[in-house]
Design a protein that fits this description.
Strand order of the largest sheet: 3-2-1-4-5
Number of helices: 6
CATH class: Alpha Beta
Radius of gyration: 16 Å
Structural class: alpha/beta
Distance between the termini: 31 Å
Number of strands: 5
Largest sheet: 5 strands, mixed
Shape: globular
Number of domains: 1
CATH superfamily: Ribonuclease H-like superfamily/Ribonuclease H
């Protein structure tokens, strides 16, 4: 049986800076194809920012042909207007994927952090440090939105791997270590 390749696009929606990451999974091997941010602060008009999000996500999809898209779900803070704008950004990114008929999965921020660091309350810097170690990255990106998007893609990989049965069952810490040698020291 051939090892199935899967390309996952991870998105960390934002209206000023939006993170994205494209990973390739071949069996248990993960490779970063691209990651970075979409800068939107140069556009004053919120609707123009939404248009740019759609266009940029659509171009990433066209370039990498992901099999699946994973997004970080917005979380409610104190500012309702910020939450509304974030939800719009997420919706536009979702529409770019849906227009290409790519399945989408959302993950709560705590679930993403838990999948990457083992701690659902980890700071962005802890998530970035773990990903730098896992992928042997030598330079921290200027905007942690990029590593957040990478974390979303990795979270989706781990969850879909276990959902499809290709990752086995997590019976014990020992089986986790055997199945995920690159996540433990």
């Amino acid at each position: 049986m051939a090892i199935k390749e899967k390309i996952i696009l991870g998105l960390d929606p934002g209206t000023v800076v939006m993170g994205y990451a494209v990973i390739q999974a071949v069996g248990a091997d993960l490779k970063i194809l691209q990651y970075g941010v979409i800068h939107l602060n140069k556009y004053d008009d919120h609707y123009l920012r939404l248009k740019k999000i759609f266009e940029r996500v659509e171009s990433i999809i066209t370039e990498y042909s992901p099999d699946e898209v994973a997004l970080e779900a917005p979380f409610y803070g104190q500012n309702v207007q910020a939450m509304l704008k974030l939800g719009r950004a997420q919706g536009v990114a979702m529409m770019a994927a849906l227009s290409k008929q790519i399945p989408i999965t959302e993950y709560a921020p705590k679930k993403v952090k838990q999948a990457v660091t083992g701690n659902g309350n980890a700071a962005k810097e802890q998530v970035a440090a773990m990903l730098m170690k896992q992928f042997k990255l030598t330079e921290l990106p200027e905007f942690l939105d990029a590593t957040d998007a990478l974390a979303v893609a990795i979270c989706h990989y781990y969850h879909s791997k276990n959902a499809t049965g290709t990752g086995g069952t997590k019976k014990s810490w020992k089986s986790f270590v055997v199945e995920n040698p690159n996540r433990v020291k």
